[in-house]
Specification:
By secondary structure, the protein is mainly alpha-helical. The protein contains 4 helices and no strands. The longest helix is centred in the C-terminal third of the chain and has 30 residues.
């Protein structure tokens, strides 16, 4: 009898520990964030293709290289809003890093366009 009580007490303590140390995950918000990250990844991949086309002179103008710059701010604004709702500092840091990388890439593409115009 005491063994059964002890086992039940251990299970109750384990459940209590897990309950108090877990946080609720909003699956809908998580899926929205994942969808936005996939969109960013796809936009970036398409941007890479457009850079290669411009480099090999298959694109005769630079409009495809500037198009993502119109869409990225909107998606990052939505992503930042959703991320703040999740209250996850690590996720916010990762999103900020992605945003910095996109901005750096935009700067490098601007330099590429300027060099191509001079050449």
């Amino acid at each position: 009898m005491t063994l059964v009580c002890f086992v039940l007490l251990v299970f109750a303590a384990g459940w209590g520990y897990l309950y108090t140390h877990s946080h609720a995950i909003n699956a809908e918000k998580q899926n929205e964030i994942l969808a936005m990250l996939k969109d960013i990844k796809q936009m970036d991949a398409n941007w890479n293709v457009d850079v290669l086309k411009s480099q090999s002179e298959l694109n005769l103008n630079y409009d495809p290289l500037t198009q993502p710059l119109i869409n990225f701010p909107t998606i990052f604004e939505s992503l930042n809003t959703e991320t703040k709702y999740m209250n996850d500092a690590e996720l916010e840091k990762s999103i900020s890093g992605i945003h910095e990388n996109i901005n750096e890439k935009a700067s490098l593409i601007d330099r590429f366009k300027a060099q191509k115009r001079i050449a």
